[in-house]
Amino acid sequence: MTDMRVCYRVDLLGPLHVERNGHRLEPGPAKQRAILSLLALRLGDSVPVGEVEEAVWAGMVPSSARSLVHTYVARLRQVLEPEHPPRRRVRVIASTVSGYSLRAETVETDVARFRRYVARAEKRIGEGGREEAFDLLGQALDLWRSPSLGELRSLLHDNIEVEALGTAWAATAHSYVGLGLRLGRSATVLDTATRLARLEPLHEAIQADYLAVLSSSGHRTVALHRYAEVIQRLRTELGVDPGEELRAVHRALVRPAGRPPVPRPAQVVPAARRRPGCGPVSGQLHWRAGDIADLVGLLAKYRAVTVSGAPGCGKSAVTLRAAHQVARVFTGGVLTVDTLDLSDRRQLERRLSRMLGGDGAEDPVELLRDQPTLLVLDNAEHLVDACAVVADRLLLACPDVAVLTSSRQPLGLPYERVQRLHPLPVPQPGGWPSVLSSPAVALLAERAAQARPGFRLDRRDAEVAVEICRRLDGLPLALEMAAACLSAESLDGVLRRLEGPLEGVRPPAAGAEPRHASLRAMLDRSVQRLDVVERCLFHRIALLPGVFDLAAAQRFWRPHPCGPTDVRVVLAALVDKSLVMPVGEGGGRYRMLGLLRRLACEASGAGAGATGFAPRPAPEVSVPLVRPLLPVGVAATAE
Questions:
Q1: DSSP assignment of 417-470
Q2: Which CATH class for the 273-421 domain?
Q3: Would you say the pTM of this structure is higher than 0.90?
Q4: Counting beta carbons within 10 angstroms of the beta carbon of residue 500, is it exposed (0 to 12), middle (13 to 18) or buried (19 or more)?
Q5: N or C: which end of the chain has fewer CB within 10 A?
Q6: What DSSP letter does each residue of 199-213 carry, written as one string?
Q7: Hey, what CATH topology would domain 529-611 get?
Q8: Tens digit of pLDDT for each residue in 388-429?
């Protein structure tokens, strides 16, 4: 451990293991282990008591849950700090305004080490250091004693962060195997490739890499048997034949030794059918490798996929990167349509016709028939109905077409698959230098260096940077706006801007898009599409605590001039439009990002102080129902 202050270790990537100065500790029964695991997963973050209850009791929260949580935390503190009297046992588990936090300055977790190794590896790959990146990825994977996360999943049922952690292992393992193949280290990655292939039996890219690893490490016969098993499962379970990537590996397996591959004639697309692709992609997408891998996997199985999420969470960037990765599968090309300046279905169809080589009057269905094409509809939230109609016509009439959409609201098609993006994780202050590996802080520092050449985040500025990330909820586009302000201001100056109206946070560069002219403009675009009832409820629930339940929203609604309204239905509409997020899988509990709460309060005249960004109240464990809590950044680049 590089930080001498760290004397506790909590390992989650396998059976829960807790140590203090090298001596193992027993955290106690299952509920206590679950609470410690949740706090360790969100190391340094404040976890509200309501979220602890939801995670520990998995949607079946008893009336005594809050009292039980306090009891379990007290017992955990006794285990961790037995030498201190009860009221002084806060060096490891600290009380916050809304809940509890596992202190990053005294605790080290294998999850945090894993993320640091992966971040360093991604950086070395970008710098051309593939050998060093390969070793770093290997060290990251060595921390996993159980990739299935069996105990963690049993302690925290259906927890989104546990699922994201499992996805992160798969994405890292896939990168490690692919890098091993390119470096001629097939024997080294064979075990990882085998484990990954068993975990993702229908992921064609993963299976193709596994076959290549088997062949390169001298197991050609095993690879041929495996290929037969894979194509049988693809045909039986998905009703599809193997794609070009798998077939190419199979051709290499059956090719006689020493014979070069037979050149395949290039497929010529008629001039009238040439079309723009998904465009170049550049720059690092912090903490998005797992999201991109998941999206690529969905595109391999489904023909209608939508990426949705809160404003500014990075939907467009993830969508275009995934489209770039799967482009080779669509021999007819990738057609990307930015719908921002379109206002109805006719305009969308005319643009499609012209992009496909027509004169604007031809039906896109006829132009795309028998053309294996991926159609990307970007920024579609203001045109959801029109995009749904066009997508439905194309998908029903053109069996070789797939539609990938980025929108704050899904299209609502019955066969549509939706992937929701979350903001980037935000650390708590005081964890230097570990805060530098936080995706939100890393993005802020990277964009700040672009705005102000020579900028470098140091220990003195770290707490200010973390506070900026927290106030911006880890939203990539909001972080980029704040970083752009650093061309003329200091970090402290940007933080002071965030204490004022959202309209005051605006990039200084001239010619910015109207929707990106200010933080307020970026957020307001979602609220403008709400109807009267939805807008009213949005304004009212912004005054509730960070996590609230259906009953609280119903109490805030009554009485109202709009008359009787099913608040559950209206809340569902706000969730659908990515303005409210459900908490847990059981339903009935919700939360709103701090920036959206500020927007609602500013619009209704409540002011910034109503959102918790005014002078902070003294820490306490519980708060009155209608008193807003300080928003906490949650996990999940620019839109």
A1: EEEEE-PPP-PPTT-TTGGGGSHHHHHHHHHHHHHSTT----HHHHHHHHHHHH
A2: alpha beta
A3: no
A4: exposed
A5: N
A6: H-TT-HHHHHHHHHH
A7: Arc Repressor Mutant, subunit A (1.10.10)
A8: 999 999 999 999 999 999 999 999 998 999 999 999 988 876
